[in-house]
């Protein structure tokens, strides 16, 4: 996206936010339409259950609407709503007790973080197949690792943005990513040892 | 760093950040130099690139339920909280409202207390008026006891009602007395007339 079109998108977002705040329901609908695809894609990185994905995105927009007057336009609307979505996802994971957010001081989490050789997907593997394996491995990781991996590897967020979204320091993001990658590789090899042979 | 050159111990922890393009030029430049001379660290960098392949940029189309944006906007404007309960939403609201919360709590408390007092006073007034007189006035109209009984559905005989209609309420205190206390002497409450009017 070019700088000009990014500015135009931002101006349009600002206009839509202002109209929504003045009571224009159609303007909010337009904001939802603009970002629903990206948020659906984001939510799908955490769950493949269609109903859960829809609930996450819907809750994100409902929260965004309630907090809209606190949006100060310093960041882009997407950055702002991305943070809300990430928190909504973390809340959902916590509510379901899948893997409560654990402290990094947990000895189990600090365990062996020696980087192993990174196995890579076979060349012939289809994107869908790779995604299925990745989702399964991510599902075995504690949320604190899962979230940073998704934010960095799927969404390509810079460390600073991850730090801002999760309320962490850049140093913490860096070390958490390091551990998360090591854990991912370990789990991948324990679930699919065949990829270790190819590495 | 030995002789201005980076060694593997210094280089390895930086490789992930280098791959993520998170290093400053001052950090990246000596690492780049080291990578040119060190096959082991080059292998580690290649491992980072392989790892990235587990997180492909999805080309899979995201399915959005029909009418999603419209439905979400409608729910937002209707005050829907989504899966977030009002209790969960409270901290965010309290944070947004800041100092208003204690005032709001006080107003709620004062309103509840006033409502309770009003209820008690109304009850006391009602108790003091009931039974103090049989001559009742509603909206400025003088009602006979028969009319009152008829309104209350206690007098089903229209003929009897006609007969009672002619009798002013003041002259029928004995009937009232007999109904409540058969032992009491006739005319015991005669003359105690309390005017009652609808507010």
Uncertain runs of chain A with pLDDT below 50, 5 residues or more? 99-113
Q: At CATH's second level, what is the architecture of the largest domain in chain A?
A: Orthogonal Bundle
The helix tally of chain B amounts to: 9
CATH class of the largest domain in chain A: Mainly Alpha
Using only C-alpha atoms, the radius of gyration of chain B works out to 44 Å
**Main β-sheet of chain A: number of strands, strand sense, barrel status?**
none
Based on helices, strands and strand pairing, what is the structural class of chain B?
A: mainly alpha
Number of helices of chain A: 10
CATH topology (level 3) name of the largest domain in chain A:
Rna Polymerase Sigma Factor, Chain: A
Q: Give the CA-CA distance, first to last residue of chain A.
A: 36 Å
Q: Radius of gyration of chain A from the CA trace?
A: 19 Å
Unreliable parts of chain B: 87-101, 133-141, 154-199
Record the strand order, biggest sheet of chain B.
Answer: 1-2
Residue share in β-strands of chain B: under 5%
Output the helix-strand order of chain A: HHHHHHHHHH
- Give the amount of beta strand of chain A, in percent: under 5%
**Helical amount of chain B:** 55-70%
- Tell me the span between the first and last alpha carbons of chain B: 93 Å
Quaternary structure type: heterodimer
> Quick one: biggest sheet of chain B?
2 strands, antiparallel
The count of β-strands of chain B is 2
What would a concise description of this structure say?
Chain A has 199 residues and is mainly α. Chain A is built from 10 helices and no strands. In chain A, helix 2 (25-44) packs across helix 4 and helix 6 crosses helix 9.
Description:
The complex is a heterodimer of chains A (199) and B (199). Chain A is mainly alpha-helical. In chain A, 70% of the residues lie in helices and 0% in strands. Chain A is built from 10 helices and no strands. With 199 residues, chain B is an all-alpha fold. Among the domains of chain B are: 8-52, no CATH class; 133-199, no CATH class. Chain B is 58% helix and 2% strand. A two-stranded antiparallel sheet of chain B has the order 1-2. In chain B, a hairpin with a 2-residue loop joins strand 1 (137-138) and strand 2 (141-142). The termini of chain B are far apart. The chains are: A mainly alpha (199), B mainly alpha (199). The interface between A and B is large, with 55 and 39 residues.
């Amino acid at each position: 996206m070019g700088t000009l079109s990014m500015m135009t998108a931002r101006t349009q977002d600002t206009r839509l936010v202002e109209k929504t705040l003045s009571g224009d329901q159609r303007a909010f609908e337009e904001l939802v339409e603009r970002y629903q695809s990206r948020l659906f894609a984001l939510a799908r990185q955490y769950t493949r259950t269609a109903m859960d994905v829809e609930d996450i995105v819907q809750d994100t927009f409902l929260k965004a609407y309630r907090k809209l007057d606190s949006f100060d336009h310093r960041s882009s609307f997407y950055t702002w709503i991305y943070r809300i979505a990430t928190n909504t996802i973390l809340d959902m994971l916590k509510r379901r007790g899948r893997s409560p957010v654990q402290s990094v001081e947990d000895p189990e989490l600090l365990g062996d973080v020696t980087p192993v050789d990174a196995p890579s997907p076979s060349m012939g593997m289809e994107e869908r197949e790779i995604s299925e394996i990745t989702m399964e491995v991510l599902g075995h990781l504690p949320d604190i690792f899962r979230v940073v991996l998704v934010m960095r590897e799927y969404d390509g967020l810079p460390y600073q943005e991850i730090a801002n979204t999760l309320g962490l320091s850049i140093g913490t993001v860096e070390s958490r990513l390091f551990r998360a990658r090591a854990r991912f590789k370990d789990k991948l090899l324990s679930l699919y040892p065949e990829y270790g042979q190819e590495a | 760093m030995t002789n201005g050159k980076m060694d593997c111990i210094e280089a390895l922890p930086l490789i992930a950040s280098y791959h993520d393009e998170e290093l400053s030029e001052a950090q990246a430049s000596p690492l780049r130099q080291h990578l040119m001379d060190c096959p082991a660290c080059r292998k580690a960098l290649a491992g980072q690139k392989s790892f990235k392949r587990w997180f492909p940029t999805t080309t899979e189309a995201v399915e959005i339920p029909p009418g999603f944006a419209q439905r979400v906007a409608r729910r937002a404007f209707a005050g829907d909280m989504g899966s977030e309960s009002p209790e969960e939403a409270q901290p965010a609201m309290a944070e947004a409202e800041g100092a208003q919360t204690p005032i709001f709590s006080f107003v709620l408390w004062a309103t509840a207390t006033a409502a309770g007092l009003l209820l008690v006073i109304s009850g006391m007034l009602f108790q003091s008026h009931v039974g103090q007189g049989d001559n009742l006035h509603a909206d400025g109209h003088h009602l006979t006891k028969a009319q009152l009984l008829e309104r209350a559905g206690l007098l089903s005989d229209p003929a009897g009602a006609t007969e009672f209609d002619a009798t002013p309420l003041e002259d029928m205190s004995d009937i009232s007395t007999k109904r409540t206390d058969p032992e009491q002497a006739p005319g015991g409450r005669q003359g105690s007339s309390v005017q009652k009017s609808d507010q």
